Write the C-alpha cells for this entry.
Amino acid sequence: MPRSSTSCRRPWLVGALLSMSLMPLPILACASSLARVDLYDRSDELALETYRHRGRDYVVGQPGNEYAIRIRNCSGRRVLAVVSVDGVNVVTGETAAPAQSGYVIEPYGYVNIEGWRKDLSRTAAFYFSDPQDAYATRTGRPDDLGVIGVAVFRERESRVLMESAEIHRAPASAARQESSADRQAKGRAAESNAAAAPALGTGHGRREWSPARQVEFERANSRPDQRVVIRYDRRENLVAMGVLPRPARPRREPNPFPGALGFVPDP
C-alpha cells in the first residue's frame, strides 16, 4: 500500500511493486560495485563480451537474436534496479527516468530480464532489430536506440528484508516529473550533437510467460547509488568506431612465380 517516506531528500510515495520469477544462470562474479550487469544472447546461448572504449562499455548485437539483461545484486541488502532499453522503461513503457518502476533483487541474488513487461504474467522478448522495427521507434521515440541503462538504488536500512526479485512500481506523479525533465535534456542533447543514424535497436518480440507479484520497496536515497550504461551495435559499426580491432587479413604465402606464363615484352 502507498505510504509516505522521508528517507530521501524530498518526500515521496512508495507504490506497488512486482515480483519476477528467476531463471537458473551461471554465477556472475562481482567486482567492488553494488550490482553487476551483463547481456546474454539467448539465441546463441552465450554471454556477450563487454568492450571498453573511451570510457564507455559496448557489446556486439547480432540482428534478429533475442537477448536478456542479467543483473546481480552484489550486496547484502535488497536493491532496486530501474532498467531502460533505448530510452524506454522496460516495465512501464514510459520514457525512462530513475524515479520509475524497476526490479527489486534479493541480497546476493540476480534477475534475468528477457523482455518488455506486458502484465504480471507475460513479457515481450527483447531482440536486436533494425532501427525502424525497434519498439522505441514504433512508439515515436527513435533518438536513444542502442543503449541500455540500469539505475541501482539501495533499500532503506530500517526495512525488514523480504523475498526476492521484484519490480518497483513508482508513483505516477514522480514518473511524469522525471520523464518530462528527461525528455527536455534529450532534446537539448539532440540539438547540440547530431549523431549518425543508429544501426541497431531492440524489438518487441514474442510473448513469454514471466510471472510477477506486488511488493514494497523504500529507497535509501532519491538518487541512484550506481548507474550502469551499456551500448550495443552491429559488429561492423563497432569496428568502424574503433571499439573492436579490424579483422586481420588472412596471411598469404608468397609465390615466387605469380605471373602468368608468357614471354618478355619489348621495353
